[in-house]
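Kindly inspect this today.
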Amino acid sequence: MLVISNTVSISDWEVDITAIRAQGAGGQNVNKVSSAIHLRFDIQRSSLPAFYKERLLKSNDQRITKDGQLIIKAQQFRTQQQNKEDALARLKTFIIEATRPIKSRKATKPTRASKQRRLQQKSQRSEVKSMRKQIRY
């Protein structure tokens, strides 16, 4: 069981964990040992509250398929157990991050001093450029 918060948790049957062979360079065991973990989590079938499901499905993440399944591949560590723990931890952080409240943007205006500085810089630049012109008699 994966505990997300005090009220929300994910049962073991909701997470499909498969051992696969890790990619990349390795040693003698790389082609024999399945140490990487492929974690599949079906968001729509899960027992998460509707708010969580909605926020997860709305998130624009490449790990979520069109069917609403979250796929996490963990192959950072050498042992299968460490990769499994890493994948579950990444699932937990993904769910927590997706349900964190979105910070609203407050519109701000430039200060009077910053406006004056900008206009002064523009006029100085204009003066520099006008001094480059040829003088006509």
Q: What stands out?
A: The chain has a mean pLDDT of 85. The beta strands are 2-3, 9-10, 15-20, 36-42, 69-74.
